[in-house]
């Protein structure tokens, strides 16, 4: 992960922890985000963590079961405060990369 991606991950994790979405995170997820935000840990790159976060958002199962265009439409329809945490756990990845890995 590049230095820029690490900085972006720290910023995104900080934003996630300050957002209303933080209340839906488990204690382990909050601890991981805190480590990322403080620079103690590299951004989460485990697909199980990414999948777990996406699964918390309504409509995920149907969106991922369809074509990429369906997944993108679903993602684009999410409010910013839902997209921000998802971006925080998947820094440096494009939406297509995320779709392909989760599909």
Topology readout:
Layout: H1 3-18, H2 27-38, H3 47-55, H4 60-65, H5 68-76, H6 80-89, H7 95-102
Helix pairs in contact: 1-2, 1-6
Throw out a few tags for this protein:
103 residues, mainly alpha, globular
Taken in chain order, the helices and strands follow as: HHHHHHH
β-sheet strand percentage:
under 5%
Integer-rounded radius of gyration: 13 Å
Percent range of helical residues: 55-70%
Give the terminus-to-terminus CA distance. 23 Å
Largest sheet data: none
Low-confidence stretches: none
Oligomer: single chain
Shape: globular
Q: Average the pLDDT over all residues and give the rounded result.
A: 80
Distinct helical segment count:
7
- Strand-pairing-aware structural class: mainly alpha
Query: Quick one: how many beta strands?
Result: 0
Describe this structure in words.
The chain has helices at 3-18, 27-38, 47-55, 60-65, 68-76, 80-89, 95-102. The two termini are 23 Å apart. The longest helix has 16 residues, at 3-18. The protein is mostly helical.
Short description:
This protein is mainly alpha-helical and 103 residues long. It has helices at residues 3-18, 27-38, 47-55, 60-65, 68-76, 80-89, 95-102. The longest helix has 16 residues, at 3-18.
């Amino acid at each position: 992960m590049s230095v820029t991606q690490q900085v972006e991950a720290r910023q995104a994790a900080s934003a996630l922890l300050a957002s209303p979405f933080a209340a839906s995170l488990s204690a382990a997820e909050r601890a991981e985000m805190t480590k990322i935000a403080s620079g103690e840990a590299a951004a989460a790159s485990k697909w199980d963590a990414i999948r777990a976060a996406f699964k918390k958002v309504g409509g995920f199962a149907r969106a991922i079961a369809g074509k990429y265009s369906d997944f993108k439409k679903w993602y684009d329809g999410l409010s910013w405060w839902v997209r921000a945490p998802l971006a925080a756990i998947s820094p440096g990845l494009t939406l297509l990369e995320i779709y392909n890995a989760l599909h």
